[in-house]
Amino acid sequence: MKLAGQDLGDFPLLLAPMEDVSDPPFRALCKEQGCDMMYTEFISVEGLIRDATKSVQKLDIYDEERPIGIQIFGANLDSMLRATEIVDAAKPEVLDINFGCPVKKVVCKGAGAGILQDIDKMVSLTKAIVDRSSLPVTVKTRLGWDDNTKYIETVAERLQDVGIQALAIHGRTRKQMYKGEADWTLIGNIANNPRIHIPIIGNGDINSPQKAVLYKERYGVDGIMIGRASIGYPWIFREIKHYVKTGEMLPPPTIRERVAAARQHLTHSIDWKGERLGILEMRRHYSNYFRGLHGIKPYRAELVTSLEPERLFEVLDMIEERYAAFVVE
Fold first, then answer.
1. Residues 203-207: contacts with CB within 8 Å, 24+ apart?
2. Which pick of 215, 221, 250, 286 has the fewest CB atoms within 10 Å?
């Protein structure tokens, strides 16, 4: 699959843009474990054009992360175009538009998945950004607003016609949020539509190498985007890649690997976000870093409550010492 002049391989794995998750500290770990392309956290165009600190910081990208896409969301044409120029100046490989975030505070402004209630506006906004940007433009979206408005097959053709270079589709409607099972049937229909010539990337519920290969073969997508399954478990990328290549499962990461990753993640999170925020936003990762360890609960409890970096690193040392001989299954 080729995107933005980059050869991403025969079946690339992409890291989904996730708020307060897919930041530089976490992206570095995913890249080390074989992720082929990553996206920033989604960025509010209103925050970006007003020079809001949090929004501007999300533009930070590093050479070792490339190829990378910067993702924006919004609903106002003028704001979207002004933000497009700011993103262009940051020089990612791709500008990605978020038309899929289901969160109420985004949707109520007509942004994210909210725009699925107005497909004509969705297409016109996309065309305007394609025409303005010097970068390849991609889109991430959902099947539709609800079960009665799954217009994604038509949407895919219309977005392709206005010039997007790839389309990532989450197999749920906005109404579903993240509940129920993702339905890849329509994603498969688009991937196998002879009129579609851009890469189609499937997203939703990929949480194992076996499922990744099954969906690859069943639905014929060009690549897979992984979100929640990577949180606290960047090894999902290397495990899928190995399974695709050999048909064999890799053993899970050792305790030493898990603790080393948690240490690196925490260190870089503090360096990039500052001590308090860096510690707080690491907390969602610990359960997966140490999943399956008998008796881990008191250690994990301290990891998600302490605000002292020194104590957090001490707890990580304690975990490594206690579970040094433990074999994770």
1. 203/16, 203/140, 203/168, 203/169, 203/170, 203/171, 203/227, 204/170, 204/171, 204/172, 205/171, 205/181, 206/240, 207/236
2. 250
Q: Minimal CA–CA distance to 97: which of 131, 63, 77, 70?
A: 70
Cβ proximity of 63 and 91 under 8 Å: no
Tens-place pLDDT, residues 91-137: 999 999 999 999 999 999 999 999 999 999 999 999 999 999 999 99
Nearest-angstrom CA–CA distance, 1 and 11: 7
Q: Which of 243, 185, 259 is nearest to 211 (CA)?
A: 243
Do 24 and 1 contact (CB within 8 A), yes or no?
A: no
How far apart are alpha carbons 286 and 224 in whole angstroms? 24
Whether 101 is catalytic is yes
Q: How far apart are CA 155 and CA 235, in angstroms?
A: 34
Burial, 328: exposed, middle or buried (Cβ in 10 Å; 0-12, 13-18, 19+)? middle
Give the start-to-end residue ranges of the domains of the chain: 2-246, 255-322
The answer to whether the CB of 296 falls within 8 A of the CB of 290 is: yes
Q: Is 296 helix (H, G, I), strand (E, B) or coil?
A: coil
| Structure confidence by residue, pLDDT tens digits, 230-281 | 999 999 999 999 999 999 999 999 999 999 999 999 999 999 999 999 999 9
Fold of 2-246: TIM Barrel (3.20.20)
What pLDDT is attached to residue 199? 97
Q: Which CATH architecture has domain 255-322?
A: Orthogonal Bundle (1.10)
Contacts of 259 (CB under 8 A, 6+ apart): 316, 317, 319, 320
Out of 30, 35, 101, 108, the active site residue is 101
In contact, 164 and 126? CB cutoff 8 Å: yes
What are φ and ψ of residue 117, in 5° steps?
-85, -5
The overall average pLDDT reported for the chain is 96
